[in-house]
Amino acid sequence: MDNNFLTQITNGTIDAVETGRGGSFVLVSYSDCPTCNRDNQQIRLNVTGNTVILDENSNRIPITDLRVGMTVNAAFSNATTRSIPPQSAAFVIQVIRRPRNDNVTIGRIVDIDRQNRSFTTISDANLSTVIRFNVADNAQIFNAFGRPMNFSGLVPGLRVRVRHAAFMTASIPPQTTAFEIRVVR
Hints:
The chain is mostly beta strands and 185 residues long. The protein has strands at 6-18, 24-30, 41-47, 52-54, 71-77, 87-97, 103-113, 118-123, 126-142, 159-164, 175-183.
């Protein structure tokens, strides 16, 4: 295939998968320069009947098997829209890694420790639901619109959905590692 019409991304992360009458698409975050300390970019890959979707073993799978958090490689058209995020026709999407078995907690931030890169949440104003999240260095943080944001943008009062490790310490409050933080409305 002539690469003048093709763009590729490696190790992108699926942020959303949508299938419906209006068409199907996969929203992917990626970094075109992992060592440049730049925020991830996003692209909406429009999926058609001609798009080849593969699992880790290169077997064809339907779009319905794709999940948020999967790591994928993708090849898509150089012709992209100027929308935010840009859109393009997907040629190939291949799953490289599936997400770990993590837990998800939704709560309101009540405290932030910027020096130790951690924050505490409470759910439903119930003291037994207080959890301290230690934010991993490679954790992804997204605003309410699904756009990447920095840890410094988290403030007390925000309601967040936190994807975190399945383990918790026996401390009070319990602590665990946060892999992904999404501000929810």
